[in-house]
């Protein structure tokens, strides 16, 4: 008998578990719209040309495999903060940002959560309802208490702005408000610039600390600057804030685990101290981060030619997703005779569409149509091709009725 008899079976992950089920399905029609990973029109994984070029350069230079410092690759940390805030931003000029390389978006969020737990033991995190499922796991494991603020309004398939503001207002002063920088996951619904201003007003009034999760910079709209709008607005307004970054989607570096945590402080002195404590938290967790992805990012962003080429490839990826979104909308509108308004599909931003299908309907999508998706009704348009839109539209209409 095992000493581990008391260890019970963990449930499958709600997102990654979908891919496992997909792999087990032998039907030719099967479609994996679960995990948010970019595919080509042929539904194949895509390695960006700029990544291949950067890797070639790296190989030619014969770089070694020595440990990085705890805070990661200096050249990466520099460019990642500049990409996020803008190189000419005063927070960078004044040395007020503590940036350390993280294990992609997830690891960066987790490190920040550990920091919150250690230095703000009484503070609570506020997360949107719904949100990316892993946010709850991250705060739970870091022992940061959290509660939800209203975000999605099923009646309009849009933003519940009044509910959001009311809930942020009702939270204890000094809470950490987790915000999706752009392309909210899973809804694809973002506040307007005017709404961001008002969200900043309440956060300021309540002395909360904004905590941005930026997993899609440049990947949502195709523009790095447009997708950083919300973060830069809050910085302009003088907030101290946290930002977790990920290069999984915009550079397609999913498995390289490359991202960063940035803490904007009101003085460079505070920034230095915060950085020292982030390093202290990282050391016993993973010691120091992996180098390969950091070098790729540093090479791509640091080289004007590669940087321009990256922007073009990002526009291409974002453009393909927008085309698929448009085609899906057209197919749904043409085929559905019920008079339902499908325009919400076009209003959503980023790689996901939040269909409004509930759990039983999502199960029907999988059981009858072999379409794999998360049970909250979210589909990844990045895993869809133009030629599969019609099939998907048939499945969605059938599952709604
Ligand atoms: N935050 C959000 C909102 C995400 O959608 C994702 C990726 N699905 C992440 C963070 C982190 O992903 P990764 O750890 O691969 O960077």
UniProtKB/TrEMBL annotation:
Cofactor: pyridoxal 5'-phosphate
Domain Aminotransferase class I/classII large: from-to ranges: 30-396
EC number of this enzyme: 2.6.1.1
The keyword Transferase is annotated on this UniProt entry: yes
Keyword Transferase applies: yes
Recorded superkingdom: Eukaryota
UniProt GO BP: amino acid metabolic process
InterPro entries hit by this protein: Aminotransferase_I/II_large (IPR004839), Asp_trans (IPR000796), NHTrfase_class1_PyrdxlP-BS (IPR004838), PyrdxlP-dep_Trfase (IPR015424), PyrdxlP-dep_Trfase_major (IPR015421), PyrdxlP-dep_Trfase_small (IPR015422)
Complex formation: Homodimer.
Miscellaneous comment in the UniProt entry for this protein: In eukaryotes there are cytoplasmic, mitochondrial and chloroplastic isozymes.
The protein's name: Aspartate aminotransferase
Organism the protein comes from: Musa troglodytarum (fe'i banana)
Lineage summary: Eukaryota, Viridiplantae, Streptophyta, Embryophyta, Tracheophyta
């Amino acid at each position: 008998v095992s000493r581990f008899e008391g260890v019970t079976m963990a449930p499958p992950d709600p997102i990654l578990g979908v891919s496992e089920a997909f792999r087990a399905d032998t039907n030719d029609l099967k479609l994996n719209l679960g995990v948010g990973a970019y595919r080509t029109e042929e539904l194949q994984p895509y390695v960006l040309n700029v990544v291949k070029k950067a890797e070639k350069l790296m190989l030619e230079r014969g770089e070694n495999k020595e440990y990085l410092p705890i805070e990661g690759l200096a050249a990466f940390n520099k460019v990642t903060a500049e990409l996020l805030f803008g190189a000419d931003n005063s927070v960078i000029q004044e040395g007020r940002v503590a940036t350390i390389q993280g294990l992609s978006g997830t690891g960066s969020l987790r490190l920040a959560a550990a920091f919150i737990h250690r230095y703000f033991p009484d503070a609570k995190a506020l997360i949107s309802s719904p949100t990316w499922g892993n946010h709850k796991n991250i705060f739970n494991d870091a022992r940061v208490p959290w509660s939800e603020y209203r975000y999605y309004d099923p009646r309009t398939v849009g933003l519940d702005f009044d509910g959001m503001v009311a809930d942020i207002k009702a939270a204890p002063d000094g809470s950490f408000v987790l915000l999706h920088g752009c392309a909210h996951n899973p809804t694809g619904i973002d506040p307007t610039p005017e709404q961001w201003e008002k969200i900043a007003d309440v956060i300021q009034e309540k002395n909360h600390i904004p905590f941005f999760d930026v997993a899609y910079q440049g990947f949502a709209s195709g523009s790095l600057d447009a997708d950083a709008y919300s973060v830069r607005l809050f910085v302009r307004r003088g907030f101290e804030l946290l930002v977790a970054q990920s290069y999984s989607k915009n550079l397609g570096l999913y498995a390289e685990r490359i991202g960063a945590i940035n803490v904007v402080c009101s003085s460079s002195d505070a920034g230095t101290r915060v950085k020292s404590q982030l390093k202290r938290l990282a050391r016993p967790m993973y010691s120091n981060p992996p180098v390969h992805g950091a070098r790729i990012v540093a090479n791509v962003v640091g080289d004007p030619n590669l940087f321009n080429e990256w922007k073009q490839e990002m526009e291409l990826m974002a453009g393909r997703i927008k085309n698929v979104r448009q085609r899906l909308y057209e197919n749904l509108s043409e085929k559905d005779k019920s008079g339902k308004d499908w325009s919400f599909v076009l209003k959503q931003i980023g790689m996901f569409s939040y269909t409004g299908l509930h759990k039983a309907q999502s199960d029907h999508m999988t059981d009858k149509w072999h379409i794999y998706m998360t049970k909250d009704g979210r589909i990844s348009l990045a895993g869809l091709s133009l030629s599969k839109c019609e099939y998907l539209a048939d499945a969605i209409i059938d599952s709604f009725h």
